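Box S1 | Example of a co-folding query
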Amino acid sequence: MINRPRRLRTTPAMRELVADVALSPKNLMLPVFVKEGITEPREIKGMPGVLQHTEETFLHVLDDAIAAGIVSVMFFAVPEHRDETGSQACLSEGILSRVIKAAREHVGDALVLVADLCLDEFTDHGHCGVLNSSGAVDNDATLEHYIAMASVLAETGADLLGTSGMMDGQVAAIRAGLDARGFVNTGILAYAAKYASNFYGPFRNAVESQLSGDRKTYQQDFRRTKEGAEEILLDLEEGADMVMVKPALAYMDVLTQAAQLSSKPVAAYVVSGEYSMVETAAAQGVIPREATIFELLYALKRAGANIICTYWALEFAQKLKEQS
Ligand code: PBG
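Box S1 (continued) | Returned holo structure for PBG
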């Protein structure tokens, strides 16, 4: 007798019956870019279909997200002025704070509002932290800036802070800073395993990054096998409420490790270059766009992601809603 796995593949109904992973709009977190001082939305080089929004137009995106069943949005702000320490990041009237405030007024509690907590959009050198006298990123001095930024963002009403800077001890420092100021309900979405990746290229256009050089002294080296797990465990011990793996598609092994290690929700971030890679191949007609994107999103769920942060969130939430 031969074993016949094909029996469970015979009809669409049979395949539905045995499908293990499901995908829902609520699994999809939508990243949104808002640029200070512009009057019309702008296209982003390398990210077809993604826009830098004005302080007005992004509110329509939130309405669309809610209508599609999305429950979380992650904000990145592009400031008009940058300086050595990224001081605009810590101003309660800065662009990111204004965005969070406006979003909260507009949507109430309908969306979980996640604010990126990092200095790279705000520094004139483009690094995720402040520099010491020899020009290296100063870990412990940076933590003080992160604590200040966290307080401002918590004050404006962010639900979750996306700690994306990869400084050692950042989750513990930010958690302690928030608690000391009474922000006990502001959570931390820790970019726990974040690699120094070549797939961030288009994002750097999106936030007009000033970086020259790389982030290899703070983001992880993709040749290491166990460091991802170490970073995830550290962030959980330090008080992370969720942990993220980034990039996603080239790091599904890390994602599966994260899902096994973490009792907290696990997120995966399909980054800008991964998005562009698929869009470019689809535009050339070498892969079917929609089916391929669904395949990737299901693969991320199968690998262990509870939440998928993706530039496809709005469009694919709409498609999922139509299907149901
Ligand atoms: C840093 C940050 C980056 C991304 C999100 N947050 C870029 C970097 O580390 O250089 C990349 C996201 C993407 O490529 O889509 N604050």
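The pocket of PBG is lined by residues 116, 118, 120, 128, 164, 200, 203, 215, 271-272 (CB under 6 Å). The chain has a mean pLDDT of 97.
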